[in-house]
Amino acid sequence: MNQQKRNLTIRPTKRYMIVRVFPLLVFLFISLAAAYLIEDLILIASGVLILMIAWQVIYLATVKYEITRTQIIYSRGILSYETDYLEMYRVKDYIKKQSLIARILGIMNFTLITSDKSHPEFSMIGIQDSNIPDTVRKLVELSRKTNRVLQVD
User: Fold this and answer.
1) 8-10 and 121-128 as β-strands: parallel, antiparallel, unpaired?
2) Which residue ranges run through the membrane (predicted)?
3) Residues 63 and 12: beta-carbon distance below 8 Å
4) How many domains is the chain built from?
């Protein structure tokens, strides 16, 4: 119970979801306007776009990054659920990315360069702009000391 209080759970923000589906929404409104003129085909395309938008929003709502003292646990999925584990001592480098829109919305993408075979580059997308890079860096150092891991390039 006490261990769970120390874990940090991060999810993509609602603002990121809006940014992610915005191009689809624009295309949807254009196709709905065209549907007024060319009814059937455009109406079907609009329905498909609505389903794509809903799928993207539901999928992003399932994404979860849990940061513990020893690993990052990445969970996601709608019909099938998948969970990956990245050991902290495998992290080599960190990259924080923010486009202009992301800076305005206060979100970021945080990428970890790792020695992990399944995730050489691991990205936490659309998360709240915060001190996560510093937190992860400190946890990586602690994990390396605890596990007596020496990074060799």
Assistant:
1) unpaired
2) 21-38, 44-63
3) yes
4) 1
Domain membership of residue 151 (yes or no) is no
Is residue 19 one of the residues assigned to a domain? yes
Identify whether 142 is part of a domain.
yes
Full domain range(s) for residue 135: 2-146
- Which pTM value belongs to this model? 0.74
Does a structural domain hold residue 10? Answer: yes
Query: Roughly what angle, to the nearest 10 degrees, separates helices 39-62 and 14-37?
Result: 170
Query: Under DSSP, is residue 127 helix (H, G, I), strand (E, B) or coil?
Result: strand
Going 90 to 129 to 5 to 137, the CA torsion angle's sign is positive
Per-residue pLDDT tens over the stretch 12-48: 888 888 888 888 888 877 777 776 667 666 677 777 8
* SS3 at position 150: coil
Greater confidence (23 vs 92) lies with: 92
Q: Over the range 86-113, which residues count as b (16 or more CB within 10 Å of their CB) and which as e?
A: bbbbbbeeeeeeeeeebeebebbbbbbe
pLDDT 10s digits, 94-143? 999 999 999 999 999 999 999 988 889 999 999 999 899 999 999 999 99
